[in-house]
Amino acid sequence: MKILLVNYRYFISGGPEKYMFNIKKKLEEEGHEVIPFSVKSNKNEKTEYEKYFVEPIGSKDAVYYEDYKKTPKTILQMLSRSIYSFSTKKAIKKIIKDTNPDIVYILHFINKLSPSVIKGAKEMKKPVVVRLSDYFLLCPKFDFLYKGAICEECLKNGYRSCIKKKCVKNSLFASIIRVFSMKVHKFIKVYKNIDTIITPSNYLKVKLQENGFEKNNICHVPTFCREKDANIENIGTYGLYFGRISEEKGVEYVIKAYETLDEKYKLKIMGDDTTEEAKRLKKYVQEKNIKNVEFLGFKKGEELETVIKNARFVLVPSIWYENLPNTILEGFSYGKPVIATNIGSLTETIKDGINGYLFEIGNSKQIADCILKLDDDNLVKQIGRNNIECIKNEYSIEKHYQKLIEIFETVKEENEKNGR
Length: 420
Prior knowledge:
Strand order of the largest sheet: 2-1-3-4-7-8
Low-confidence stretches: none
CATH class of the largest domain: Alpha Beta
Largest sheet: 6 strands, parallel
Number of helices: 16
Oligomer: single chain
Number of strands: 14
Radius of gyration: 22 Å
Number of domains: 2
CATH architecture of the largest domain: 3-Layer(aba) Sandwich
Mean pLDDT: 93
CATH superfamily of the largest domain: Glycogen Phosphorylase B
Distance between the termini: 18 Å
CATH topology of the largest domain: Rossmann fold
């Protein structure tokens, strides 16, 4: 099968990109041809298909909204990509025409590519499968957060709540544009062109069903993790947070937990430490003279794996609903207990005392209590064994691949049968 794989970044920035490269590798190992489609960037992995990629917003060095120089040209690009980009639709139709894929598998597209990738694929009579990593089809801000607390006002009272509160980037303009774009997408029924929506968590699947998306078009397919050469005897010496350092990840509550603990309890934070949230947290650690917290910066490859292997447990302190984050499965695969927030999709995966511990959202005292529970070496080892088995039985790449291919084949057959 020939698969056009669409994502707004073609380099590792977070969990969605890790998934993209891992599933690309697996599909290719199984004999499928995978063709990437993305946005041009100086950070991209090399590919012969980059000539088809769309022009970036601003420059090839800009990744995040904060990186954009707000010139008139950039603002127009941002508006286009938020609402509907005809240049992006033209680009995806060109790559489809030249490569003739059997199916279009779309990951992230909001704000960088636009939903025109969906419409473009359908105009070329190709089946479309979309995998969601967050809640952007339901929440203008994507995470159901307002000032660090869960907020679902837009679902109950309409999107005017987002504009009133300036939820998107704390900007009235950005909030208006995002709400306007969501209304446009609903009006033109662009998401009706999706054959199947894949959700990594059942929690997201239920949220979509509760808010107007067709039940029969949504499939829950959990994320996967490759099995690792885990050593249960290596129980590690520190707690580890790794991943994106941003407000919704709740890293500050872990830092505050360690602030109350004896200095023999160590925390390592691994991820891009140049974000605004990371800078704020580093300043807090410095001002409070917290000596048992260390920022490692962004790591990848063997360096990243070594840090995880030598951790005692993994912390997932998110203050939003999450969507089965890769960090949990990575921790499981190395036989590490996971301490996570008792919220959203995290409760589907973490069971107290079996594969880790849950704590109330933002409760640093409970985080500290969970850390102390894992002082027991034998308990750490037993939970580690449970988690390795969990990866083998529930979150294996083989299980994910088989389910994904079943979906691809089904929508392909239906598309051909209906002459689309």
